[in-house]
TrEMBL record, chain A:
This is Immediate early response 5. Residues 51-129 are annotated as: Disordered. Residues 85-106 have a biased composition (Basic and acidic residues). It comes from Chelydra serpentina. It comes from the Eukaryota. Residues 58-67 have a biased composition (Pro residues).
From TrEMBL, chain B:
The keyword Nucleotidyltransferase does not apply. InterPro entries: PP2A_PR55, PP2A_PR55_CS, WD40/YVTN_repeat-like_dom_sf, WD40_repeat_dom_sf, WD40_rpt. It comes from the Eukaryota. Keywords: Repeat, WD repeat. The keyword Nucleotide-binding does not apply. Belongs to the phosphatase 2A regulatory subunit B family. This is Serine/threonine-protein phosphatase 2A 55 kDa regulatory subunit B. One of its GO terms (cellular component) is protein phosphatase type 2A complex. SUPFAM superfamilies: WD40 repeat-like. One of its GO terms (molecular function) is protein phosphatase regulator activity. Gene3D superfamilies: YVTN repeat-like/Quinoprotein amine dehydrogenase.
Length: 183, 440
């Protein structure tokens, strides 16, 4: 039970960090925000009692056997998800990587390497993909209590900018936890 | 405009922009460069030891100061780019001039440092101040001669390597071929030729096709000191990847993966954060790698991928305080690590202005403090101790009275001698071991 209390505290601290990271000088720090999102994910699992939540805690004596923490650590979703039940492979051998150089610019002239020549074409300004933050902030702007209402239904989430969802808000944090990662 | 916020620590008040953000000796140890959050670089030069002034033996004095980077604003993304110098790396000296690379979050610059101690005098057409002479007064021709002048150190930007990185640059490393160098950001590593600024080769790319699948970022990288085709990069998950540029053009597939399985008894909400590697350094021999994560330094043998050969606890007493350290952001502090010249001693910083040294042969370790009180010139540093309950000796510091705002993130060791440079917030300390000045 005390783990749930600590998890709750960590969730609220983490959300506060993500919120305040928005105005940081120098732009969003991808590394720090990734780490915060991983902590948030672990704490959320413990708080909600989801399978895999035990991975964030030190092992306790006695049953049940812990879930496959190594798979979770590698970023795979827990096996108890619908997709696994359907038999779809959940975890690639490695983290998804960008396609190899051979598939990118065959006309580069250099075997496999892709030099970016500024003189010939201005490089497309690659986005750090921070667009999802805006919707995230609109939820957090309503205060953390809005997220803790596990019993709330969709009817209450009617303010503009908030998410309308079928399930209790915190339980459906899943799309938003991935938005956190998408900094 | 440079940020001029004021940070108050205890009774010290100083400018945010004066905080030192990187320290690096050059290959001979004659020069020491520091970068700060205000985008400035200060180069110190070691005074040659002379018999005339025995007390001035080998001290470092300011040699040159210059503004390397300025704050920039990316209007398209509405982003301010900090001028903070993240890393400085010296190029091996190839002529009378010295060269170094400095980088902020986005742009790497190559600087040439030259000395001028003579100037030409006796021009025919202009006078000493450079004004054109009245030609009617010129009755004969003279050859200008070089006359000695006060030493002037000039630093000029020779190359600017811009637009290579979407994410924040965390490390740069000069190749042993002295022609190329690499720069790493959170998701990519680029290879540059020192003479070519308009293109770079991408050699590592771990950006997932869908950013929502991101689980890991690059935290540091370095070229092997002798094999110009090998480099290593560390990740936020605590792994090291050794890559061979001869194996393939895009080094997404590592040649070797160094990873230690997690200790299940130490699992916590913060296990992932504290396993993130903040620095990686090859030994001078090239045989080993040194890594720093939040609580430990580890020595890895290139021939063994399954676990480090040595692990040293830097401040294990913080393990029970991780939640507080997460709350005050200290858990995200990125400490660096260093080898001594003979690879027998390793060093890293900690909190309360403490830094730690571990002797790999004797297995002895020491905690020292960089502070004005304990660092009068030629004073001997007294070993410090943090007590974790139990018997407390005089001068011990308890864990709860550690000052977490005084952190030593950046340290450097002279390439051959027992001289170390310690950056403590805005102060630089240089300690020399006079008794044991030769490497043992």
């Amino acid at each position: 039970m005390e783990f749930r209390l600590e998890a709750h505290r960590i969730v609220s601290i983490s959300l506060g960090k993500i919120y305040s990271a928005r105005g940081q000088r120098g732009g969003l720090k991808l590394h720090k925000n990734l780490l915060v999102s991983l902590v948030l994910r672990s704490a959320r699992r413990v708080y909600l009692g989801e399978p895999g939540g035990e991975c964030a805690l030190p092992p306790r004596p006695g049953p049940p056997p812990p879930p496959d923490c190594e798979r979770l650590r590698r970023g795979c979703r827990p096996l108890a998800s619908e997709a696994a039940a359907r038999g779809r492979p959940e975890c690639p051998a490695e983290s998804p990587r960008k396609r190899s150089a051979a598939e990118r610019d065959p006309a580069a002239g250099y075997p496999g390497k892709k030099p970016r020549r500024e003189a010939e074409q201005p490089p497309p300004q690659e986005d750090m993909e921070t667009g999802n933050v805006a919707s995230l902030i609109s939820i957090f702007g309503s205060g953390f209590s809005g997220l803790l209402g596990k019993e709330r239904g969709a009817a209450e989430a009617t303010e503009p900018g908030q998410v309308c969802c079928e399930q209790p808000v915190l339980r459906s944090l899943n799309p938003w936890s991935t938005a956190i990662v998408a900094f | 405009q440079t940020k001029t916020g004021v940070l108050k620590i205890s009774h010290d008040i100083f400018l945010w922009s004066d905080i030192i953000s990187t320290v690096e000796f050059n290959h001979t140890g004659e020069l020491l460069a520091t970068g700060d959050k205000g985008g400035r670089v200060v180069i110190f030069q070691r005074e040659p030891e002379s018999k005339n002034e025995p007390y001035n033996q080998g001290e470092y004095n300011v040699y040159s100061t210059f503004q390397s980077h300025e704050p920039e604003f990316d209007y398209l993304k509405s982003l301010e780019i900090e001028e903070k110098i993240n890393k400085i790396k010296w190029l091996p000296q190839q002529n009378a001039a010295h060269s170094l690379l400095s980088t902020n979050d986005k742009t790497i610059k190559l600087w040439k440092v030259t000395e001028r101690d003579k100037r030409p005098e006796g021009y025919n057409l202009k006078d000493e101040e450079g004004k054109l002479k009245d030609l009617s007064t010129v009755t004969s021709l003279q050859v200008p001669v070089l006359k000695p002048m006060d030493l002037m150190v000039e630093v000029t930007p020779r190359r600017i390597f811009a637009n290579g990185h979407t994410y924040h640059v965390n490390s740069i490393s000069v190749n042993s071929d002295c022609e190329t160098y690499m720069s790493a950001d959170d998701l990519r590593i680029n290879l540059w030729h020192l003479a070519i600024t308009d293109r770079s080769f991408n050699i590592v790319d771990i950006k997932p096709a869908n950013m929502e699948d991101l689980t890991e970022v690059i935290t540091a990288s370095e070229f092997h000191p002798h094999h110009c085709n090998l480099f290593v990069y560390s990740s936020s998950k605590g792994s090291l990847r050794l890559c061979d540029m001869r194996a393939s053009a895009l080094c997404d597939k590592h040649s070797k993966l160094f990873e230690e399985p997690e200790d299940p008894s130490n699992r916590s909400f913060f296990s992932e954060i504290i396993s993130s590697v903040s620095d990686v350094k090859f030994s001078h021999s090239g045989r080993y790698m040194l890594t720093r994560d939040y609580l430990t330094v580890k020595v890895w043998d290139l021939n063994m991928e399954t676990k480090p050969i040595e692990t040293y606890q830097v401040h294990d007493y913080l393990r029970s305080k991780l939640c507080s350290l997460y709350e005050n952001d200290c858990i995200f502090d990125k400490f660096e690590c260093a080898w001594n010249g003979s690879d027998s001693v390793i060093m890293t910083g900690a909190y309360n202005n403490f830094f730690r040294m571990f002797d790999r042969n004797t297995k002895r370790d020491v905690t020292l403090e960089a502070s004005r009180e304990s660092s009068k010139p030629r004073a001997i540093l007294k070993p410090r101790r943090v007590c974790v309950g139990g018997k407390r000796r005089k001068d011990d510091i308890s864990v709860d009275s550690l000052d977490f705002t005084k952190k030593i993130l950046h340290t450097a060791w002279h390439p051959t001698e027992n001289i170390i440079a310690i950056a403590a917030t805005n102060n630089l300390y240089i300690f020399q071991d006079k008794v044991n000045s030769e490497m043992h």
